[in-house]
Design a protein that fits this description.
- This protein is α+β, with helices and mostly antiparallel strands and 894 residues long.
- The chain is built from 28 helices and 21 strands.
- The longest helix is centred in the N-terminal third of the chain and has 40 residues.
Length: 894
Amino acid sequence: MTPSSPPLSARRSASLALRLIARELISQRVRLVFYAACLALGVAAIAAVSGFSAQVQETVRRNSRLLLGGDVEIQDVRLLPSTLVEAARARPETRGLALIDEVVAMARTPEGTPRLVSVHAVSGDFPSTKGAHITTPANVLDSPENLRSQTAEQAGGMGGVVVDADLARSWNVSVGGSIEISGTPFRVVGLLVDELSRDFTSLALGPRLYVHRDDALKANLVGNTSRFRERLLLTLAPGAVPQDTVDALQKAALAQGLRSPRISHHETNAGTSTRPLRNLAFFLAQVALSTLVLTGLGAASGLGEYLRTRLPDIAIYRALGARPWLPTAVLLGVVAAVAATGVVSGLVLGEALRVVVLVPLVGGLLPLSLATDVVGAVAALDIAAATFGTLVLLCVPLLLRLQKTSPADVLRGAREPASGGVSGRIAAWLAGGIALAVLAALFVRHAPNPKAGLLLFAATVALFLVFRAFARALVSFFARNETRLPPALRLSLAEISARKETAVLSMALAGLSLFLTCLVQFVKDDLLTPLGETSARGKPNLYLVDVQPSQREGVVDALKARNGGADVYASPMVRARLAAVNGKETEGRVTLGARPLGEPDPEEETRRAREREQNLTYRFTLGEGERVVERLDEPSVPTLDAQGRETLWPADATPRAEVSVEKAFAKRAGLALGDTLAFDVQGVRVEAKVTSLRSVSWQNWRPNFFLVAHPSLLEGAPQMNLVATHISTSEAREDVQKTLAQSFPNVSVLDAAAIVRRVADLSTGVAEATRFLASLLLGASLLVLAAGVVATRASRMRHYAILRSLGARDKLLSQSLILEFLWLGGVSGFAGVVAAAVLSRVFASEFLEVDASLSLAPGALLFFGAVGVNIVVGWLSCASVLRRKPAEVLREGS
């Protein structure tokens, strides 16, 4: 073919384009594989998390009725009115009705160690969903009447109880044996082997026991003086719509003047119960999205550099008579092939990571087996399609510029494609805008609400722009002062300056990746470190609830005799309900209609915070780890007591109707300084003004309260005491529990050490999953670096050949190469670590409300490790460049 040859036909051009695409993919396979692998890693991270999240949601959807125990639930922290129960029974779609009272109590065998248990007093058609319980002997819980008939002929009319099988084994008790619950004897009539109808939490205060509701009432387990939750479960006829029943019962409750019962159906209940898992999935998704952003930018940058290097080939094709669109179509086909390979490989890898890594690490947080027929790759198809389209779209403006570049300009020595003029700039801005919109949509999709998603998207973009501006300023500064630098450093900076945009992008991505990785590590440490310090620092690990005022002195003395000299903390506790805020009743905001599964409702959060049962205490001084952050009337000098502790109120005899509120609870409940709160204290209305807001260090494990009142307000109210102390060994704690159970059978004892162990075990899976995604993030950064090196390999080879022909020694080139990658990964990486350390402190103290302790070791280890690997990867990527002979390279270049 000659320059005067006629243009090829459309069919022959298309056939030629396909052959050229195949040829290009083969000849450039090394660099193109890097770009595809880079993209695959990011897609794999988000595909694995999306697949796991879809697996959890599908599991919850299928089992939501079993998890609730029925179709519709009515719940309150007091006895439900009989009128509402009858209204639910009279509904035509109702097929079963079960009433359940849940109360925490102490249980023991005559010889065994007392244990805190969750007692469920049941009556009616329980369980509402068959198959929710498996017991031995069989069918004990098919009807609650079996709990009574099993013991009807036993001496003394002892009630029957179904005991958790694990608890029975630890007590060495079997069917026919007896246990005591809060001092009342019960006969064991069954063992609870398995149960699905439970909340999505591994932090339950104790194993479950089932008794008949009549027996619980006789034993005073349920009543006006006990703390319990009552639930009415409805089973509906097949085909009935649960939301219609919920709406009807809410209207009936309002008509009866009942506003506090919470009415929901099994799907919305499951959405609320799985909030911890959804929060975990949200956190993992943000890390995975960050990985995808890094790899997407890296792949786009590498492909852009690759397209620029093909400018001479485009000129040759055009000079030989190829149609103007042919070279562009070939390169677009190459870009599409690389993007498709990366996306498909990422989906396959993501599915493998979901099954092999995420499910074993965090799947155990669910109380049931995950659905196995969910394919994670299908759940991430929309993300994969968006990634593919965005990557191809980002390359289109550059392809258009390449198409507009004339062969004559290239042959005269042009190294960059034509500017493209106004249309080129419009295309670039349009492609960038669409890419940002797609990215924002992904963040919103994986966030708990659109506002949070947009904020995280804006924060990610802002961080990238900050690191990019920092890197650009750094490169410009050294470029202006390179004459004062040593030769090796000057050569490394010259190499960076020669590819300024690519180098700036690599530095920004390195800084962002180390920032995100260190931020994850620092926040994780802030959350988990307090769990490991409870024993070392002597923090309370044994809590006693329901200690009556007359028992307080005896309980404190008993603890002091056995706790080895540790402090004993005793706080009065008054149970109350927040009845009104500024004269407006807190009840009555019943929301009709359904919300999507798992979608948060800020108004519902505020309503729950206000209408939950409140535990108040009273005292003059601040506790250790508390501080006043805002006062209604700020004194010039804080008032101190005789021991030097800051007081909430002057320690005088003046009665004050005032209360101090913990700041996070105030925000959640919509309370502010100056608000007037009305409390219903067991039928007595008490009003107080909010005069201060406090911050509380919850991880000190001492008795802390959201609401602290002036002593004159609550001293005469019905109350109990919360007592806490530290006892080192589990044997000593068991001994204390036995002693207290004999002397004070009404007191509930909570061994916090067991809860800490459960939290630590739970956190291990979360930490491992986080560490896994963080490693993907660092791997993505390294792949981006390697892809950038491969993209500039040809120009770097020619540059080194010229330097060596001018007398540069291999040692000098090697030193400059090491310094170059040290600059690329080290400088911005150091800035990322510092930024992560600062922001993690703010995040931990302001949002997580934990004590932030700056530990430089994890950040330093990550920094030096990442920089070291950065240098190794860069060196290996350029090793072949240093081995080429200058004459050989220059002959190829000519």
